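Good morning,

Attaching, inline, the backbone tokens for the sequence recovery test we're adding to the shared suite. The designed sequence is right after.
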């Protein structure tokens, strides 16, 4: 298992999701926020694996 610090992009995406959930944003906005969190996490994992291989 790869352990790495949580990048700022992941944290920002999670914060935006919480803000929109609290504000009861429309479902399409919540879905977009969830996709942003998933994409940011996937990108961070790819970069961590590349750093580990280098």
């Amino acid at each position: 298992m790869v352990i790495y610090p949580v990048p700022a992009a992941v944290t920002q995406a999670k914060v935006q999701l919480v803000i929109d959930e609290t504000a009861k944003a429309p479902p399409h906005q919540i879905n977009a926020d969830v996709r942003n969190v998933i994409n940011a996490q996937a990108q961070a994992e790819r970069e961590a694996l590349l750093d580990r291989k280098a």
